[in-house]
Design a protein that fits this description.
There is one protein chain. By secondary structure, the protein is an alpha/beta fold. A 7-stranded mixed sheet has the order 3-2-1-4-5-7-6, sandwiched between helices. β2, α5 and β3 form a beta-alpha-beta unit. The longest helix is centred in the N-terminal third of the chain and has 33 residues. The protein starts with a helix and ends with a strand.
Length: 293
């Protein structure tokens, strides 16, 4: 399978690291999870689509690529990764040593985690097998214990495999669900949250982003790209709707921010240093940290 959405997300993190000396989210491992041929192919495909992203754009191919990445691809990936990293560090200080990466894709968290952390990566079988091959070929050093679980998160029952792999609910946990809520129907996302709640003990946390109804241009473009890659986005929420959904599933929000606050918190320094390449959080996206109640 192509797994294009996972590849483009990885490319966006890699591009941001390669082309800069300061970062909104520093990911020095992402580029090694893609081959150089894949990286160049994605760059070429994006550059050739400049008329879709910005009709009438005037500039070189390099300028076109940077415009597309910084205005349409990177914001959603960088902002949610930065928010999640900060949320995890807060939980880590309280002693959490287990991290669950739901729909892990080509996430590089395991290369940045501490040696005391046990990371569980959950995703569909074809992607998990490919991810293991990429990690083996990358030359990157893992700094944690890691378990790969081939599961279908859209179906109930995945938690049994997690427990068999050595997950201990009593030791606390942090769950990353970045980018998931977009691609699951609401009833399926609810079922996923309920199963997480069933294995999480009080104060265990989950971190995720979700699409609100007031989507901006970048969000709409990304949805169109996902549909073309046959990975159609299926849901939107209001903040009140998400709050109620979490409550029903046994979670309460510890922190939630929208696009404007996220831009101020994570992009302000970058934009000050790079006024010609401003990056803002995509409109209509919320970032949420919730804990098991």
């Amino acid at each position: 399978m192509d797994h294009m959405t996972a590849k483009v997300s990885c490319f966006s993190r890699a591009f941001h690291f390669r082309d800069n000396t300061d970062w909104i989210y520093k990911d020095d491992a992402a580029g090694k999870l893609l081959t150089e041929e894949e990286y160049k192919a994605i760059a070429t495909n994006m550059t050739s689509g400049i008329s879709y992203f910005a009709p009438g754009f005037q500039g070189s191919g390099e300028e076109a690529l940077r415009f597309i990445v910084e205005q349409f691809l990177s914001p959603s990936v960088l902002l949610r990764s930065a928010f999640c990293e900060r949320a995890f560090r807060m939980q880590e200080e309280s002693g959490v040593r287990q991290v669950l990466l739901f729909a892990a894709g080509y996430d590089s968290f395991a290369f940045h985690a501490g040696k005391e952390i046990h990371v569980f990566e959950l995703d569909q079988e074809s992607l998990i097998e490919e991810k293991k091959e990429r990690v083996a070929a990358s030359g990157l050093m893992l700094h944690c214990s890691i378990s790969y679980l081939a599961v279908d998160l859209s179906l109930a029952g995945w938690s049994a495999a997690l427990k068999e792999e050595g997950f201990h609910p009593e030791d606390g946990a942090f769950g990353s669900l970045l980018g998931i809520s977009y691609y699951l129907e609401k009833r399926v996302f609810r079922r996923l949250l309920l199963e997480i709640a069933d294995i999480f003990q009080k104060d265990a946390a989950i971190c995720f982003d979700y699409p609100a109804y007031e989507a901006g241009e970048a969000s709409r473009k990304n949805r169109a790209l996902a549909a073309e890659a046959r990975e159609e986005m299926k849901a939107e929420y209001t903040p009140d709707e998400m709050k109620e959904l979490l409550r029903e599933c046994g979670f309460q929000i510890r922190r939630e921010i929208g696009s404007e606050e996220a831009s101020k918190e994570f992009c302000e320094e970058w934009n000050r240093k790079n006024p010609g390449h401003r990056i803002l959080a995509p409109g209509g996206v919320h970032y949420c940290l919730a804990v098991r109640s």
